[in-house]
Amino acid sequence: MVAPVQMTTGAGPEVYFDGDDESRARGLYQLLREDGSLVGDVAWLDRALARRLYDGMLTIRVTDARMMALQRQGRIGFYGEAMGQEAAVVGSAAASLPDDWIIPALREAGVGLFRGMTLDSYLAQIFGNAADPTKGRQMPCHPCDRATNYVVMSSCVSTQIPHAVGVAMGMKILGHGGRCAFGYMGDGGTSEGDFHVAINFAGVTRAPVVLICQNNQWAISTPGKVQTAADTIALKALGYGVPPMRVDGNDVLAVYDATSRAAARARGGDGPTFMELLTYRVSAHSSSDDPSRYRDESVTEVWKSRKDPLRRMRTLLEQRGWLAPGESEDLAATIEARVRACITAQEQVGPPPRATLFDDVFESKTWLLDEQARSI
Ligand SMILES: Cc1ncc(C[n+]2csc(CCOP(=O)(O)OP(=O)(O)O)c2C)c(N)n1
Ligand SMILES: [Mg+2]
User: Fold this and answer.
1) 190 within 8 A of 199, measured Cβ to Cβ
2) Which of 60, 143, 224, 282 could be disulfide-bonded to 84 (CB atoms 3.0-4.6 Å)?
3) For residue 6, is it within any domain?
């Protein structure tokens, strides 16, 4: 039997993976410290991967900022940012393979973008225009992308988890070996009944799924400490026989490495893993929220500065000469120009034609819909 391992925060692979499941659920896997120094060995990290991770995080940061500006100008109706959570989003996305399926929750649009959903398609969906594959019927921030197996988000908190486990069970039944499903959720999602039902099925069926909880410590105005009496969210998985991992969610290298390990297990037929990625929702819950009414924003400031996931990765990249001084600002400006060009293009696309209202409702139109269609 593997013994428990005592961990102070931030354990590298030699310590973290040496213990039992409970110590992994109570500990915290880390490779890159807040100051940009390394905890463990990352011989696998080359410049290309490091830059893909950093550029992916920067793309989310810049895109989200533009989208929030559009919302404040009244040009889009609603937006929810992932500010401060970019490492959890990109690190996990980078561990996915093209044949895997992604079932996102609230803050994973960046996973879709990282996997190849185009910015044009993302913006078309935010504007709900004629180029929107869902024909303007979804809220902004509920994108989908068939080409990259990125499933549209279901708005009801936690419903995404049974969806993800169901997709994975389907893969197993159909004999689709070598692939897995990624099912995302927030910390709040783990208090819903759907979480317990889904993780139970995942454990019993040994479905090829990686369940990823972005613990950003808030569910709108509900803080983590009144969300659950469990010491950590990862501990919940133990009762269902699903191996847990608890990871520094602001450390893109640890998130990438841990998710890669979990995905490899799933793809190899070794069943599910539950991952708690510890991070912080630096932004408001959404464009309709004002967190200064219910939380101490001096705490937010610490996560925004010292604990910022981009900052620590930038420090490492600059130390290794993989990012020149000032290059990050240039890169951000290039991304912003690209986002602005897409906004201009997509704002000129008109709304979906009214007749499309009746598409995708029934396989063939009923007489009632026919009648309604004639009246528009
Ligand atoms: C079943 C259900 N209850 C309530 C809501 C309203 N709601 C939307 S997001 C949210 C909080 C989600 O918190 P969490 O799961 O931690 O995700 P986060 O927003 O922090 O990413 C709530 C209560 C909902 N969409 N669905
Ligand atoms: Mg949350």
Assistant:
1) no
2) 282
3) no
- Contact 165/207 with Cβ under 8 angstroms? yes
Single pTM value for the model:
0.96
Token pair listed for 18: 């040496």
- Determine how many CB atoms are found less than 10 A away from the CB of residue 101: 23
Q: How confident is the model at residue 40 (pLDDT cuts 50, 70, 90)?
A: confident
Residue 2 located in a structural domain:
no
Range of the domain at 108: 13-374
DSSP state of 225: G
Calculate how far, in angstroms, residue 85's C-alpha sits from the geometric centre of ligand 2.
Answer: 11
User: Rounded to the nearest whole angstrom, what is the distance from the C-alpha of residue 285 to the centroid of ligand 2?
Assistant: 8
Is residue 334 included in any domain, yes or no? Answer: yes
Instruction: Supply 218's token pair.
Output: 């808030």
The domain that contains 332 carries what CATH number?
A: 3.40.50.970
Pocket test of ligand 1: the residue of 160, 220, 227, 300 to mutate, having most ligand atoms within 8 Å of its CB, is 220
Burial of 55 (0-12, 13-18, 19+ CB in 10 A): middle
Average of per-residue pLDDT values in the chain: 96
Largest CA distance in the chain: 71
